[in-house]
Design goal:
heterodimer; A: about 250 residues; 6-stranded mixed sheet; 4-stranded antiparallel sheet; 9 helices; B: about 475 residues; 3 domains; 11-stranded mixed sheet; 8-stranded parallel sheet; 19 strands; about 30% strand
Chain lengths: ~250, ~475
């Protein structure tokens, strides 16, 4: 049961259907990429998996290691092992990165256990160094005044410190220059393991040159219309999304 | 709460907070209601010098004459029934109850705030006196060596009139406002402190040790004089909720910082939710002196408090750092007053308020810089955080600045903890309550650092507890 298994998911918001009979299975140990034109439901999928309350799930299930997480609170889903790297990370004024991550870690500890400060900081600094983040950032308020690149690196830092089972990355590459992209990709690649599954949601193929996926899925009109290997991503890049629309618009739901 | 409820509370006790009992035989009973006889009685019991009785009676006259400030203040003030309040309680009269009678939620609060055993009984009204004799006498010995005077208001005026009388009622005259007049007529308890020239006290002085049966907290009168070059930090109140039977608290605090002296006055107020807390606090700073108010208001039904500094001498500095938290049924009406009367004076006001549920926070700030002054500066920052949609916040800045070379800066913000911020934090594994607490603590973080460590740890716990009810 080492999978994040999304089965026949139909989701709407404000009466409008976004995901239509969407299915996708991500096993631990694999990196799956999800690509598609804008407005096709990629971010909605990410939020629904994370348990965002704004969406109405009309049908389907999401099984995380065999347990249906639909209807659970976002924090329950998180503690079950899901991490969502946000497309637009939120600012939390007055809460430092160090304290925030420590609070997130503490939330997962059994009652009464405490975090060893020395070990915590050792680990935090090591991971910040790997992501080429200035150590002074630990004292800065979470995401406040950060550039796009800094925000995304901060997401990867949190992901690295919380060691989730499944990582959903929502357009992590948007707003990043080549150097930041490489650093982020390195951070993600360091986390690849048999114990972890990744869903990389991206609009552009560029990121996937650095984070080479095991499977690539193309999404259109609320569901997956085509799947392939890493080569599919390059095909999309050269042919463009119009190709997808033409080839798959006719495919019945 | 209906008018009847209020009256009931004033006459008997607040039955909501558990069973309090007044003892049957009264040694000293000033009775209910306020008139000349009540005031004379109080003065007699304390065996005061005639000038003090005179002071009280004049103040009573002012109190009776002045109207309620309900034109601009919360109409809730009309729910105070002056003729049904007890204005003086002595040792024999303090209400009490047994530990068993203390409600469970009160006990739980103490537990969660980590209040020591001894203190719990006092705070819950089981014991009338905080038994800290040992700590108190040790402290007194140390202070005596330095020539510091630390006594109650009655002792201060009786034993050291040459020190305290010159300033008593000068920083805050009885006519300042209706409630200063009330306090001036009925005051009892509070701290009178004198720090000699050049003495810089390293340890903060705490009001706590001086709480006894008589200092019931209703009409405390505090006067702190720091002579030239002296330094003192004074701490008042505690994070633990004090379960009070008296519904009206009207304190007056006067601070006098002579040349190059520094006074820092820290208050944590967490009165129970039936209390009207109407306080007048003002400091006077001479040349090169500094008066700093650090204020945290969490409890009470209605708090009206505008700590102020009169910057009398050149280069004087005044500061007010204030945190207020208003929950359901509460109104924290706070702010600051900075009156610049000399060149090169600076003032700083930072106010952070949090409104939860149907709580209401108000900021009133007055900054005054007249035309003939030069190089005066004020910086004001007031930030409000609204947690729920029915929470309310109001800001009333009154800034008067004239002259060519003075600067005033005022920044205000109102924010909410957004659903998206909460979702983001929950996605990291924090529960909704934990996320809210974190966001709120982040909001007050800068100011929290100004409080001494013991307070900031307790304050954080207190805020977390207040937040719990608000979520969902």
């Amino acid at each position: 049961m080492n999978t994040l298994d999304i089965k026949h998911l139909t989701v709407s918001i404000d009466g409008q259907r976004i995901l239509k009979d969407f299915s996708l299975c991500i096993p631990k140990g694999e990196v799956h990429a999800l690509m598609g034109p804008n407005g096709t439901g990629k971010s909605t999928l990410a939020k629904v998996i994370a348990g965002h309350a704004d969406y109405t799930v009309e049908a389907g299930e999401i099984l995380l290691d065999g347990v249906d997480i639909l209807g659970q609170e976002p924090d329950e889903i998180a503690r079950a092992g899901l991490f969502l790297a946000f497309q637009y990370p939120l600012e939390i004024p007055g809460v430092s990165i160090a304290n925030f991550i420590r609070a997130a870690r503490r939330a997962r500890l059994p009652e009464g256990e405490e975090i060893n400060a020395v070990e915590y900081y050792k680990e935090l600094y090591a991971k910040m160094d790997a992501l080429k983040m200035d150590r002074k950032f630990t004292a800065r308020s979470l995401n406040e005044g950060f550039s796009g690149g800094e925000k995304k690196r901060c997401e990867i830092l949190q992901m690295s410190m919380l060691e989730p089972q499944y990582c959903v990355m929502d357009e992590t590459d948007s707003g990043l220059d080549i150097d930041a992209l490489r650093i982020v990709a390195d951070g993600v690649n360091l986390m690849r393991s048999k114990q972890r599954g990744f869903l990389v949601i991206t609009h552009y193929q560029r990121l996937l040159e650095y984070i080479v996926p095991d499977r690539v899925h193309v999404m259109y009109d609320g569901r997956i219309v085509h799947s392939g290997d890493a080569e599919l991503a390059r095909q999309l890049e050269s042919k463009g999304y119009d190709w997808v629309k033409q080839a798959f618009a006719a495919v019945p739901a | 709460m209906t008018d009847t409820d209020i009256q009931n509370q004033a006459i008997r006790v607040d039955t909501e907070k558990g069973n309090f009992k007044y003892p049957e035989d009264y040694a000293f009973d000033a009775g209910v209601g306020l008139n000349q006889d009540t005031v004379k009685y109080i003065s007699e019991v304390k065996q005061e010098a005639p000038w003090i009785l005179d002071f009280r009676l004049k103040a009573l006259e002012i109190f009776e004459r002045k109207p309620m400030p309900t034109k601009w203040a919360d109409q809730d003030l009309n729910n105070i029934h002056f003729d049904e309040i007890r204005y003086y309680l002595s040792k024999g009269q303090v209400p009490s109850r047994t530990w068993d009678e203390v409600p469970d939620d009160v006990k739980e609060t103490f537990e969660r705030l980590g209040i020591p055993e001894q203190e719990r009984k006092f705070l819950a009204g089981v014991e009338a006196q905080f038994d800290s004799e040992a700590a108190y006498s040790r402290m007194q010995e140390d202070l005596e060596k330095e020539g510091v005077i630390f006594v109650g208001s009655s002792e201060g005026l009786a034993q050291y009139p040459e020190i305290f009388r010159p300033y008593f009622g000068k920083v805050i005259p009885s006519s300042d406002n209706k409630f200063a007049a009330l306090n001036s007529a009925t005051f009892s308890g509070g701290s009178f402190i004198y720090v000699p020239k050049g003495v810089k006290l390293k340890q903060p002085l705490q009001a706590y040790f001086r709480i006894n049966a008589e200092n019931f907290g209703q009409f405390e009168r505090t006067l702190i004089i720091a002579d030239e070059g002296a330094e003192i930090t004074y701490m008042e109140g505690c994070t633990a909720p004090k379960f009070e039977t008296a519904t009206l608290h009207s304190a007056v605090v006067e601070l006098v910082a002579l040349k190059n002296a520094k006074i820092q006055y820290i208050t944590v107020q967490n009165w129970s939710s039936n209390v009207f807390n109407l306080v007048t606090k003002r400091g006077m700073a001479d040349e090169g002196a500094e008066v700093k108010w650090i204020d945290c208001n969490i409890g009470s039904r209605l708090t009206m408090k505008y700590p102020g500094v009169v910057l009398k001498g050149r280069e004087a500095r005044g500061e007010v750092l204030s945190i207020a938290l208003a929950n359901d049924g509460q109104h924290q009406d706070t702010g600051a007053k900075m009156i610049h009367l000399a060149d090169n004076t600076t003032s700083n006001i930072i106010s952070k308020s949090i409104s939860i549920g149907e709580g209401r926070s108000t900021y009133r700030g007055q900054v005054y810089m007249p035309k003939h002054l030069k190089n005066c500066k004020n910086n004001t920052e007031c930030d409000a955080l609204l947690i729920n949609t029915n929470s309310r916040t109001d800001t009333y800045p009154a800034i008067t600045t004239r002259g060519q070379n003075n600067t005033v800066q005022h920044e205000a913000s109102v924010s909410k903890v957004s659903a998206e911020q909460i979702f983001y934090m929950m996605q990291r594994g924090l529960s909704e309550g934990e996320a809210m607490s974190l966001a709120v603590n982040g909001f007050v973080n800068d100011l929290m650092k100004a409080f001494p460590m013991e307070y900031s740890v307790e304050l954080k716990r207190l805020i977390d507890m207040e937040m719990e009810g608000s979520v969902g």
